[in-house]
Design brief:
alpha+beta; four-stranded antiparallel beta sheet; 4 strands; 51% helix; F-box_dom; F-box-like_dom_sf
């Protein structure tokens, strides 16, 4: 729990959304079969959970106002109704994240832009990138993206970047191509060259016949 509103506000200040004052915000649709629209909105001193019930237009209560639950940081740990609704709609993991956040544990890495995170990854060695991919879903996705592995490929291999190689990376991805052994890679590239050659020959024949 934050020791004081003022000190907590100072800690949070760089991460607060200047437009709406939120420290954390998530909007999504509830898991099937429900189609309810959900929003978690957290400020420096309050947690707000809103539910828009999506009901058939023929029902009398179809146009009801959204359900809104509010709790301050002190009361939230004992707010069974609100906590229960969050778990029911968003899962235990979301509740744990909120508890950690209002307890002063800001996930700074998750709040950095993709561009900044990629710059961090670009400065790591290959072993560190592979280990980082095991840390979280976010880093697993970033650590497997073509932007990262195209750079790794170019930094670690002398294979020229040919049209056939680019076609292969479009099909397999840069990471898969990087981990291919040299014999496999040459076989794949040879097949791509044969396909390209056949297409060119077919195009020339078509031009001559027309």
């Amino acid at each position: 729990m934050a020791k004081s509103t003022r000190s907590w506000a100072e800690i949070c200040e760089p991460w607060i959304n200047k437009e709406d004052g939120s420290l954390y915000q998530r909007t999504c649709v509830a898991p099937a079969p429900s189609k309810d629209f959900l929003q978690i909105f957290i400020t420096v001193d309050q947690i707000i959970f809103r539910i828009w019930r999506i009901l058939p237009p023929t029902r009398a209560d179809a146009n009801q106002h959204p359900v809104e639950m509010k709790s301050n940081y002190t009361d939230f740990p004992d707010d069974d109704r609100m906590r229960g609704e969050i778990v029911r709609n968003l899962g235990e993991k979301e509740l744990n994240y909120i508890d950690a956040l209002i307890g002063g544990h800001i996930d700074y890495l998750n709040r950095l832009s993709r561009k900044v995170l990629l710059r961090i990854i670009f400065n790591l060695d290959l072993t560190s990138i592979l280990k980082l991919s095991q840390v979280s879903k976010m880093f697993r996705e970033l650590g497997s993206c073509d932007a990262v592995w195209s750079k790794i490929y170019m930094d670690h291999t002398t294979q020229p970047i040919t049209h056939e190689l680019l076609m292969l990376t479009d099909q397999q991805g840069w990471k898969e191509v990087f981990f291919m052994n040299r014999i496999q890679l040459q076989k794949f590239l040879h097949r791509q060259q044969e396909k390209t050659s056949k297409r060119l020959k077919f195009g020339e024949k078509f031009k001559k016949s027309s």
